[in-house]
Amino acid sequence: MGWTRRKPMEAMMPSHEGQRLARTLSWPHLLALGVGAIVGTGILTLIGVGADRAGPAVLLSFAIAGAICACAALAYAELSTMMPAAGSAYSYSYVVLGEGIAWIVGWSLILEYSLVVSTVAVGWSGYAAPLLTSAGFPDLLTRGPELGGLVNAPAIFIIAVVAGLLMLGTHESARLNSLLVVIKIATLSLFVAIALPAFDAQNLQPFMPFGFAKSMAPDGVERGVMAAAAIIFFAFYGFDAISTAAEEAKNPDRDLAIGIVGSLVACTLIYVLVAAAAVGAMPFTRFAGSPEPLALILREMGQGQVARIVAIAAVIALPTVLLGFLYGQSRIFLVMARDGFLPQRLALISRRGTPARITAVTALLVAIIAGLLPIDEIAALANAGTLIAFTAVGACLLILRRRMPDMRRPFRTPAGWLVGLGAIGGCAYLFISLPAKTILACLLWNAIGLAVYFLYGRRRAALNAG
Protein backbone atom coordinates (compact mmCIF):
# COMPACT_ATOMS: atom_id res chain seq x y z
CA MET A 1 0.00 0.00 0.00
CA GLY A 2 2.68 2.50 1.00
CA TRP A 3 4.70 2.04 -2.19
CA THR A 4 1.88 3.07 -4.55
CA ARG A 5 -0.16 5.53 -2.47
CA ARG A 6 -0.26 9.07 -3.82
CA LYS A 7 -0.27 12.34 -1.93
CA PRO A 8 -3.44 14.40 -2.57
CA MET A 9 -2.66 17.48 -4.62
CA GLU A 10 -4.55 19.70 -2.17
CA ALA A 11 -2.21 18.50 0.61
CA MET A 12 0.92 19.82 -1.11
CA MET A 13 0.81 23.20 0.62
CA PRO A 14 1.45 23.13 4.39
CA SER A 15 -1.64 23.57 6.57
CA HIS A 16 0.34 24.80 9.58
CA GLU A 17 1.17 28.52 9.51
CA GLY A 18 4.60 27.93 11.04
CA GLN A 19 5.61 25.83 8.04
CA ARG A 20 4.77 28.34 5.31
CA LEU A 21 7.52 30.13 3.42
CA ALA A 22 7.41 33.88 2.77
CA ARG A 23 6.61 34.92 -0.82
CA THR A 24 9.46 37.35 -1.57
CA LEU A 25 10.77 36.39 -5.04
CA SER A 26 9.78 37.90 -8.40
CA TRP A 27 10.76 36.59 -11.83
CA PRO A 28 14.08 38.51 -12.11
CA HIS A 29 15.19 36.86 -8.84
CA LEU A 30 14.19 33.42 -10.14
CA LEU A 31 15.88 34.04 -13.49
CA ALA A 32 19.10 35.05 -11.71
CA LEU A 33 18.79 32.04 -9.37
CA GLY A 34 18.61 29.72 -12.38
CA VAL A 35 21.45 31.35 -14.33
CA GLY A 36 23.55 31.50 -11.17
CA ALA A 37 23.05 27.79 -10.50
CA ILE A 38 23.55 26.69 -14.12
CA VAL A 39 26.60 28.75 -15.12
CA GLY A 40 29.45 27.64 -12.90
CA THR A 41 32.36 25.22 -12.93
CA GLY A 42 30.69 23.38 -15.81
CA ILE A 43 31.34 25.96 -18.52
CA LEU A 44 34.71 26.90 -17.02
CA THR A 45 36.07 23.33 -17.04
CA LEU A 46 33.84 20.97 -19.02
CA ILE A 47 34.66 22.40 -22.45
CA GLY A 48 38.09 20.82 -22.02
CA VAL A 49 36.64 17.51 -20.81
CA GLY A 50 34.03 17.51 -23.60
CA ALA A 51 36.60 18.30 -26.29
CA ASP A 52 38.74 15.41 -25.04
CA ARG A 53 35.79 13.04 -25.58
CA ALA A 54 34.18 14.44 -28.74
CA GLY A 55 36.70 16.74 -30.45
CA PRO A 56 35.16 19.75 -32.25
CA ALA A 57 31.84 17.88 -32.19
CA VAL A 58 31.63 18.99 -28.56
CA LEU A 59 29.46 21.73 -30.11
CA LEU A 60 26.97 19.01 -31.03
CA SER A 61 27.29 17.55 -27.52
CA PHE A 62 26.33 20.91 -26.03
CA ALA A 63 23.36 21.19 -28.40
CA ILE A 64 22.09 17.67 -27.56
CA ALA A 65 22.45 18.15 -23.80
CA GLY A 66 20.75 21.55 -24.10
CA ALA A 67 17.84 20.12 -26.15
CA ILE A 68 17.21 17.34 -23.63
CA CYS A 69 17.34 19.84 -20.78
CA ALA A 70 14.93 22.07 -22.71
CA CYS A 71 12.35 19.25 -22.72
CA ALA A 72 12.87 18.74 -18.98
CA ALA A 73 12.66 22.50 -18.34
CA LEU A 74 9.34 22.81 -20.20
CA ALA A 75 7.96 19.89 -18.19
CA TYR A 76 9.15 21.52 -14.96
CA ALA A 77 7.53 24.81 -16.00
CA GLU A 78 4.11 23.22 -16.53
CA LEU A 79 4.19 21.11 -13.36
CA SER A 80 5.53 23.85 -11.10
CA THR A 81 2.77 26.27 -12.08
CA MET A 82 0.13 23.54 -11.61
CA MET A 83 1.55 22.57 -8.20
CA PRO A 84 3.33 25.68 -6.82
CA ALA A 85 4.83 24.01 -3.75
CA ALA A 86 8.43 23.42 -2.71
CA GLY A 87 9.93 20.01 -3.34
CA SER A 88 10.40 20.03 -7.11
CA ALA A 89 10.48 16.59 -8.80
CA TYR A 90 10.05 14.82 -5.44
CA SER A 91 6.72 16.57 -4.78
CA TYR A 92 5.41 16.01 -8.32
CA SER A 93 6.33 12.32 -8.14
CA TYR A 94 4.56 11.89 -4.78
CA VAL A 95 1.33 13.30 -6.23
CA VAL A 96 1.48 11.57 -9.62
CA LEU A 97 3.65 8.43 -9.42
CA GLY A 98 3.30 7.36 -5.80
CA GLU A 99 5.30 7.28 -2.59
CA GLY A 100 7.90 4.69 -3.62
CA ILE A 101 8.95 6.46 -6.81
CA ALA A 102 8.89 9.80 -4.96
CA TRP A 103 11.30 8.39 -2.39
CA ILE A 104 13.69 7.22 -5.14
CA VAL A 105 13.49 10.66 -6.80
CA GLY A 106 14.06 12.44 -3.48
CA TRP A 107 16.97 10.08 -2.70
CA SER A 108 18.44 10.83 -6.16
CA LEU A 109 18.04 14.59 -5.62
CA ILE A 110 19.91 14.29 -2.30
CA LEU A 111 22.74 12.72 -4.30
CA GLU A 112 22.64 15.44 -6.97
CA TYR A 113 22.52 18.48 -4.72
CA SER A 114 24.94 17.19 -2.06
CA LEU A 115 27.60 16.29 -4.61
CA VAL A 116 27.20 19.50 -6.62
CA VAL A 117 27.45 21.75 -3.55
CA SER A 118 30.40 19.81 -2.17
CA THR A 119 32.23 19.69 -5.52
CA VAL A 120 31.78 23.41 -6.17
CA ALA A 121 32.89 24.25 -2.63
CA VAL A 122 36.06 22.21 -3.08
CA GLY A 123 36.61 23.85 -6.47
CA TRP A 124 36.27 27.29 -4.91
CA SER A 125 38.72 26.24 -2.20
CA GLY A 126 41.21 25.26 -4.90
CA TYR A 127 41.23 28.86 -6.15
CA ALA A 128 41.27 30.40 -2.67
CA ALA A 129 43.86 28.12 -1.03
CA PRO A 130 46.98 29.66 -2.70
CA LEU A 131 45.92 33.12 -1.55
CA LEU A 132 45.34 31.89 2.00
CA THR A 133 48.59 29.93 2.32
CA SER A 134 50.60 32.87 1.02
CA ALA A 135 49.10 34.90 3.88
CA GLY A 136 50.19 32.33 6.46
CA PHE A 137 47.11 30.09 6.65
CA PRO A 138 48.10 26.47 7.54
CA ASP A 139 48.39 24.36 4.41
CA LEU A 140 47.02 21.26 6.19
CA LEU A 141 43.71 23.09 6.64
CA THR A 142 43.20 23.66 2.91
CA ARG A 143 42.93 19.98 1.88
CA GLY A 144 40.93 16.97 2.96
CA PRO A 145 42.55 13.81 4.36
CA GLU A 146 42.61 12.10 0.95
CA LEU A 147 45.04 14.76 -0.27
CA GLY A 148 47.29 14.63 2.77
CA GLY A 149 45.61 17.43 4.75
CA LEU A 150 43.41 17.50 7.83
CA VAL A 151 40.27 19.29 6.68
CA ASN A 152 39.28 21.57 3.80
CA ALA A 153 38.50 24.64 5.90
CA PRO A 154 37.93 27.08 2.97
CA ALA A 155 35.27 24.76 1.51
CA ILE A 156 33.51 24.57 4.88
CA PHE A 157 33.79 28.36 5.24
CA ILE A 158 32.14 29.20 1.92
CA ILE A 159 29.30 26.74 2.60
CA ALA A 160 28.75 28.40 5.99
CA VAL A 161 28.70 31.88 4.40
CA VAL A 162 26.14 30.89 1.75
CA ALA A 163 23.98 29.06 4.31
CA GLY A 164 24.10 32.14 6.56
CA LEU A 165 22.87 34.31 3.68
CA LEU A 166 19.99 31.92 3.01
CA MET A 167 18.99 31.90 6.68
CA LEU A 168 19.22 35.69 6.84
CA GLY A 169 16.56 36.04 4.19
CA THR A 170 15.68 34.64 0.77
CA HIS A 171 15.11 38.07 -0.76
CA GLU A 172 18.42 39.45 0.53
CA SER A 173 20.43 36.49 -0.73
CA ALA A 174 18.62 36.67 -4.09
CA ARG A 175 19.69 40.30 -4.55
CA LEU A 176 23.36 39.47 -3.91
CA ASN A 177 23.06 36.47 -6.22
CA SER A 178 21.76 38.72 -9.02
CA LEU A 179 24.83 40.98 -8.73
CA LEU A 180 27.23 38.03 -8.88
CA VAL A 181 25.41 36.61 -11.90
CA VAL A 182 25.99 39.88 -13.78
CA ILE A 183 29.73 39.57 -13.04
CA LYS A 184 29.72 35.97 -14.27
CA ILE A 185 27.95 36.77 -17.56
CA ALA A 186 30.21 39.78 -18.17
CA THR A 187 33.27 37.53 -17.74
CA LEU A 188 32.08 34.95 -20.27
CA SER A 189 31.12 37.74 -22.67
CA LEU A 190 34.69 39.07 -22.38
CA PHE A 191 36.08 35.64 -23.34
CA VAL A 192 33.77 35.41 -26.38
CA ALA A 193 34.62 38.97 -27.48
CA ILE A 194 38.34 38.12 -27.51
CA ALA A 195 38.32 34.51 -28.75
CA LEU A 196 35.54 34.58 -31.37
CA PRO A 197 37.37 36.97 -33.77
CA ALA A 198 40.21 34.40 -33.89
CA PHE A 199 37.79 31.69 -35.15
CA ASP A 200 39.44 29.41 -37.75
CA ALA A 201 37.26 26.82 -39.50
CA GLN A 202 40.31 24.57 -39.95
CA ASN A 203 40.27 23.95 -36.21
CA LEU A 204 36.95 22.12 -36.66
CA GLN A 205 38.51 19.42 -38.87
CA PRO A 206 37.95 16.53 -38.43
CA PHE A 207 34.66 17.48 -36.83
CA MET A 208 33.72 14.12 -35.26
CA PRO A 209 36.98 12.19 -34.72
CA PHE A 210 35.53 9.78 -32.14
CA GLY A 211 32.12 9.06 -33.68
CA PHE A 212 28.63 9.70 -32.32
CA ALA A 213 27.75 6.88 -29.92
CA LYS A 214 29.71 6.05 -26.79
CA SER A 215 32.67 3.73 -27.46
CA MET A 216 35.78 2.69 -25.58
CA ALA A 217 38.98 4.28 -26.90
CA PRO A 218 42.35 2.47 -26.80
CA ASP A 219 43.42 4.56 -23.78
CA GLY A 220 40.49 3.22 -21.77
CA VAL A 221 38.41 6.45 -21.94
CA GLU A 222 34.84 6.28 -23.28
CA ARG A 223 34.55 8.77 -26.15
CA GLY A 224 32.01 9.97 -28.69
CA VAL A 225 29.48 12.79 -29.02
CA MET A 226 27.04 11.14 -26.61
CA ALA A 227 29.77 10.27 -24.09
CA ALA A 228 30.67 13.97 -24.05
CA ALA A 229 26.99 15.01 -23.85
CA ALA A 230 26.48 12.77 -20.79
CA ILE A 231 29.30 14.60 -19.00
CA ILE A 232 28.48 18.08 -20.35
CA PHE A 233 24.94 17.62 -19.04
CA PHE A 234 26.44 18.63 -15.66
CA ALA A 235 26.88 22.16 -17.06
CA PHE A 236 23.17 22.58 -17.82
CA TYR A 237 21.17 21.56 -14.81
CA GLY A 238 20.39 23.96 -12.04
CA PHE A 239 17.16 25.35 -13.48
CA ASP A 240 15.34 22.69 -11.45
CA ALA A 241 16.32 24.63 -8.31
CA ILE A 242 13.84 27.31 -9.45
CA SER A 243 10.95 24.88 -9.09
CA THR A 244 11.87 24.45 -5.42
CA ALA A 245 11.14 28.19 -5.02
CA ALA A 246 7.49 27.77 -5.99
CA GLU A 247 6.19 28.61 -2.50
CA GLU A 248 8.31 31.76 -2.37
CA ALA A 249 7.37 33.19 -5.77
CA LYS A 250 5.16 36.28 -5.62
CA ASN A 251 3.27 35.28 -8.77
CA PRO A 252 4.01 31.56 -9.38
CA ASP A 253 1.69 31.34 -12.39
CA ARG A 254 3.95 33.69 -14.33
CA ASP A 255 7.28 33.88 -12.50
CA LEU A 256 8.15 30.17 -12.41
CA ALA A 257 7.80 29.62 -16.16
CA ILE A 258 9.83 32.74 -16.94
CA GLY A 259 12.54 31.72 -14.50
CA ILE A 260 12.83 28.08 -15.59
CA VAL A 261 12.58 28.45 -19.36
CA GLY A 262 14.32 31.84 -19.50
CA SER A 263 17.37 30.73 -17.52
CA LEU A 264 17.88 27.62 -19.65
CA VAL A 265 17.49 29.51 -22.95
CA ALA A 266 19.94 32.20 -21.82
CA CYS A 267 22.49 29.66 -20.60
CA THR A 268 22.23 27.53 -23.76
CA LEU A 269 23.00 30.58 -25.91
CA ILE A 270 25.92 31.49 -23.65
CA TYR A 271 27.31 27.95 -23.74
CA VAL A 272 27.10 27.57 -27.52
CA LEU A 273 28.86 30.92 -28.04
CA VAL A 274 31.61 30.08 -25.55
CA ALA A 275 32.11 26.57 -26.98
CA ALA A 276 32.22 27.89 -30.55
CA ALA A 277 34.74 30.57 -29.58
CA ALA A 278 36.89 27.97 -27.78
CA VAL A 279 37.08 25.26 -30.46
CA GLY A 280 37.38 27.83 -33.24
CA ALA A 281 40.25 29.75 -31.65
CA MET A 282 42.56 26.77 -31.11
CA PRO A 283 42.88 23.06 -32.12
CA PHE A 284 40.99 21.08 -29.49
CA THR A 285 43.97 18.84 -28.72
CA ARG A 286 45.77 21.81 -27.13
CA PHE A 287 43.15 22.39 -24.43
CA ALA A 288 41.38 18.99 -24.23
CA GLY A 289 41.36 17.76 -20.66
CA SER A 290 42.68 21.05 -19.25
CA PRO A 291 41.24 21.98 -15.82
CA GLU A 292 41.09 25.63 -16.96
CA PRO A 293 40.50 25.57 -20.74
CA LEU A 294 39.24 29.15 -21.13
CA ALA A 295 42.19 30.64 -19.26
CA LEU A 296 44.57 28.38 -21.22
CA ILE A 297 43.15 29.56 -24.55
CA LEU A 298 43.46 33.21 -23.51
CA ARG A 299 47.09 32.73 -22.41
CA GLU A 300 47.93 30.98 -25.70
CA MET A 301 46.44 33.99 -27.50
CA GLY A 302 48.73 36.31 -25.55
CA GLN A 303 45.91 37.58 -23.32
CA GLY A 304 47.44 36.68 -19.95
CA GLN A 305 45.90 39.64 -18.16
CA VAL A 306 42.42 38.78 -19.39
CA ALA A 307 43.02 35.16 -18.32
CA ARG A 308 43.70 36.39 -14.78
CA ILE A 309 40.51 38.46 -14.85
CA VAL A 310 38.52 35.36 -15.88
CA ALA A 311 40.06 33.34 -13.03
CA ILE A 312 39.37 36.05 -10.42
CA ALA A 313 35.79 36.52 -11.63
CA ALA A 314 35.25 32.76 -11.41
CA VAL A 315 36.24 32.79 -7.73
CA ILE A 316 33.91 35.71 -7.05
CA ALA A 317 30.96 34.25 -8.93
CA LEU A 318 31.18 30.53 -8.07
CA PRO A 319 29.23 31.00 -4.81
CA THR A 320 26.10 31.62 -6.93
CA VAL A 321 26.16 27.91 -7.80
CA LEU A 322 26.43 27.06 -4.12
CA LEU A 323 23.54 29.38 -3.32
CA GLY A 324 21.27 27.90 -6.00
CA PHE A 325 21.87 24.27 -5.11
CA LEU A 326 22.03 24.71 -1.32
CA TYR A 327 18.76 26.62 -1.60
CA GLY A 328 17.20 23.82 -3.64
CA GLN A 329 18.40 21.01 -1.40
CA SER A 330 17.17 22.70 1.76
CA ARG A 331 13.69 23.10 0.22
CA ILE A 332 13.57 19.44 -0.82
CA PHE A 333 14.60 18.40 2.69
CA LEU A 334 11.93 20.79 4.01
CA VAL A 335 9.16 19.01 2.10
CA MET A 336 10.50 15.56 3.03
CA ALA A 337 10.34 16.68 6.68
CA ARG A 338 6.74 17.81 6.20
CA ASP A 339 5.98 14.38 4.73
CA GLY A 340 7.44 12.66 7.79
CA PHE A 341 10.56 11.21 6.13
CA LEU A 342 12.70 13.56 8.25
CA PRO A 343 11.92 14.91 11.76
CA GLN A 344 8.98 17.27 11.28
CA ARG A 345 10.35 19.87 13.69
CA LEU A 346 12.97 20.63 11.03
CA ALA A 347 10.15 22.00 8.84
CA LEU A 348 9.52 25.01 11.09
CA ILE A 349 9.96 28.41 9.45
CA SER A 350 11.89 31.21 11.17
CA ARG A 351 10.52 34.71 11.83
CA ARG A 352 12.36 35.88 8.69
CA GLY A 353 10.29 33.46 6.59
CA THR A 354 13.15 31.02 5.88
CA PRO A 355 13.58 27.33 6.79
CA ALA A 356 16.56 28.09 9.04
CA ARG A 357 16.71 24.72 10.79
CA ILE A 358 16.70 22.58 7.69
CA THR A 359 19.14 24.97 5.96
CA ALA A 360 21.59 24.56 8.86
CA VAL A 361 21.26 20.76 8.76
CA THR A 362 21.75 20.73 4.98
CA ALA A 363 24.84 22.94 5.25
CA LEU A 364 26.29 20.66 7.94
CA LEU A 365 25.82 17.60 5.71
CA VAL A 366 27.51 19.06 2.64
CA ALA A 367 30.24 20.69 4.74
CA ILE A 368 31.22 17.26 6.10
CA ILE A 369 31.38 15.88 2.54
CA ALA A 370 33.37 18.84 1.24
CA GLY A 371 35.69 19.06 4.22
CA LEU A 372 36.58 15.42 4.75
CA LEU A 373 35.54 12.99 2.04
CA PRO A 374 37.12 12.22 -1.35
CA ILE A 375 34.59 13.49 -3.90
CA ASP A 376 36.45 13.98 -7.18
CA GLU A 377 35.77 10.50 -8.54
CA ILE A 378 32.12 10.32 -7.44
CA ALA A 379 31.04 13.81 -8.57
CA ALA A 380 29.77 12.35 -11.86
CA LEU A 381 27.11 10.59 -9.77
CA ALA A 382 25.34 13.95 -9.59
CA ASN A 383 24.49 13.54 -13.28
CA ALA A 384 22.92 10.14 -12.67
CA GLY A 385 20.72 11.44 -9.85
CA THR A 386 19.59 14.39 -11.95
CA LEU A 387 18.73 12.21 -14.94
CA ILE A 388 16.49 10.05 -12.74
CA ALA A 389 14.66 13.15 -11.47
CA PHE A 390 14.26 14.63 -14.96
CA THR A 391 12.89 11.32 -16.29
CA ALA A 392 10.30 11.27 -13.48
CA VAL A 393 9.23 14.84 -14.29
CA GLY A 394 8.72 13.92 -17.95
CA ALA A 395 6.60 10.95 -16.88
CA CYS A 396 4.55 13.14 -14.51
CA LEU A 397 3.82 15.56 -17.35
CA LEU A 398 2.47 12.80 -19.61
CA ILE A 399 0.45 11.05 -16.90
CA LEU A 400 -1.24 14.28 -15.76
CA ARG A 401 -2.06 15.15 -19.37
CA ARG A 402 -3.90 11.81 -19.56
CA ARG A 403 -5.28 11.64 -16.00
CA MET A 404 -6.36 15.30 -15.61
CA PRO A 405 -6.63 16.80 -19.12
CA ASP A 406 -8.93 19.64 -18.00
CA MET A 407 -6.97 20.70 -14.93
CA ARG A 408 -5.91 24.36 -14.82
CA ARG A 409 -2.42 24.84 -16.30
CA PRO A 410 -1.16 28.44 -15.95
CA PHE A 411 1.73 27.48 -18.24
CA ARG A 412 0.91 24.79 -20.80
CA THR A 413 3.99 23.59 -22.62
CA PRO A 414 3.51 23.29 -26.38
CA ALA A 415 3.71 19.79 -27.91
CA GLY A 416 3.37 18.29 -24.45
CA TRP A 417 3.61 14.65 -25.52
CA LEU A 418 6.70 15.34 -27.62
CA VAL A 419 8.30 17.28 -24.74
CA GLY A 420 7.51 14.54 -22.21
CA LEU A 421 8.81 11.75 -24.42
CA GLY A 422 11.87 13.85 -25.28
CA ALA A 423 12.68 14.31 -21.60
CA ILE A 424 12.20 10.61 -20.81
CA GLY A 425 13.98 9.21 -23.87
CA GLY A 426 16.76 11.78 -23.89
CA CYS A 427 17.55 11.36 -20.19
CA ALA A 428 17.47 7.55 -20.49
CA TYR A 429 19.94 7.70 -23.40
CA LEU A 430 22.23 10.07 -21.49
CA PHE A 431 22.04 7.75 -18.47
CA ILE A 432 23.27 4.71 -20.39
CA SER A 433 25.94 6.95 -21.97
CA LEU A 434 27.46 7.61 -18.54
CA PRO A 435 30.62 5.68 -17.58
CA ALA A 436 29.81 2.13 -16.50
CA LYS A 437 31.23 2.62 -12.99
CA THR A 438 28.99 5.67 -12.51
CA ILE A 439 25.89 3.68 -13.47
CA LEU A 440 26.84 0.89 -11.05
CA ALA A 441 27.48 3.39 -8.24
CA CYS A 442 24.08 5.00 -8.88
CA LEU A 443 22.32 1.62 -8.72
CA LEU A 444 24.12 0.89 -5.44
CA TRP A 445 23.06 4.29 -4.03
CA ASN A 446 19.42 3.60 -4.90
CA ALA A 447 19.59 0.08 -3.47
CA ILE A 448 20.68 1.65 -0.19
CA GLY A 449 17.83 4.16 -0.56
CA LEU A 450 15.26 1.40 -1.00
CA ALA A 451 16.54 -0.33 2.12
CA VAL A 452 16.22 2.94 4.08
CA TYR A 453 12.66 3.40 2.77
CA PHE A 454 11.42 -0.06 3.72
CA LEU A 455 13.19 -0.12 7.09
CA TYR A 456 12.54 3.49 8.11
CA GLY A 457 10.73 5.80 5.70
CA ARG A 458 7.55 3.88 4.94
CA ARG A 459 6.37 3.60 8.55
CA ARG A 460 7.19 7.27 9.30
CA ALA A 461 5.30 8.74 6.33
CA ALA A 462 2.83 11.49 7.32
CA LEU A 463 0.21 9.84 5.07
CA ASN A 464 0.01 7.01 7.61
CA ALA A 465 -1.86 9.39 9.92
CA GLY A 466 -4.47 9.92 7.22
Report the span from N to C terminus.
Answer: 13 Å
Adjacency order of strands in the biggest sheet: 1-2
- CATH secondary-structure class: Mainly Alpha
Tertiary shape: globular
Low-confidence stretches are none
**The CATH fourth-level homologous superfamily:** Amino acid/polyamine transporter I
Do you know the CATH architecture? Up-down Bundle
Q: Mean of residue pLDDT?
A: 83
Structural class: mainly alpha
CATH topology: Amino acid/polyamine transporter I
Q: Quickly count the domains.
A: 1
List the secondary-structure elements in sequence, H or E.
HHHHHHHEEHHHHHHHHHH
Share of helical residues: 55-70%
Number of helices: 17
Instruction: Give the number of DSSP strands.
Output: 2
Portion of residues in beta strands equals under 5%
Radius of gyration: 21 Å
Provide structural commentary.
This protein has a single domain, classed as Amino acid/polyamine transporter I (Up-down Bundle). Helix 15 packs antiparallel against helix 16. 55% of the residues are buried. It has a two-stranded antiparallel ribbon. With 466 residues, the protein is mainly α. The two termini are 13 Å apart. The protein is built from 17 helices and two strands. Keywords: Membrane, Transmembrane, Transmembrane helix, Transport.
